[in-house]
Automatic annotation (TrEMBL):
Gene3D superfamilies per UniProt: 2,3-Dihydroxybiphenyl 1,2-Dioxygenase, domain 1
Family matches, as SUPFAM superfamilies: Glyoxalase/Bleomycin resistance protein/Dihydroxybiphenyl dioxygenase
Phylogenetic lineage: unclassified sequences, metagenomes, ecological metagenomes
GO MF annotation list: catechol 2,3-dioxygenase activity
EC number(s) stated in the UniProt entry for this protein: 1.13.11.2
Key words of the record: Dioxygenase, Oxidoreductase
Protein name: Catechol-2,3-dioxygenase
Organism field: bioreactor metagenome
InterPro entries linked to this entry: Glyas_Bleomycin-R_OHBP_Dase
């Protein structure tokens, strides 16, 4: 990964989340007292949630699906919860 950033969005919006790549290489799991820790993402439909779950599984990520949302962890130990918007 080079020195850059990744911007992600949904529904044609400019960007919802910006992520850097320049301080991540070799960073390891974050300390429990530092940083974000968890992230909630809302998607418009259950079908979209199912597509995301399949992509995560295909990429080798373990996910937990409680019927309302899926939960996984990023490489730095942050919990990522993705659910259908209400």
């Amino acid at each position: 990964m080079g020195r850059g950033a990744l911007f992600v969005s949904a529904g044609g919006y400019h960007h919802h989340i910006g992520l850097n790549t320049w301080n991540s290489r070799g960073a390891g799991v974050r300390s429990k007292t530092l940083g974000l820790g968890s992230l909630d993402i809302a998607v418009p439909t259950r079908e979209e949630l199912d597509r995301i779950a399949e992509r995560l599984r295909f990429a080798g990520h373990e996910i937990r699906d409680d019927g309302n949302r899926i939960t996984t962890y990023d490489p730095w130990g942050n919990e990522v919860r993705i659910g259908q918007a209400v």
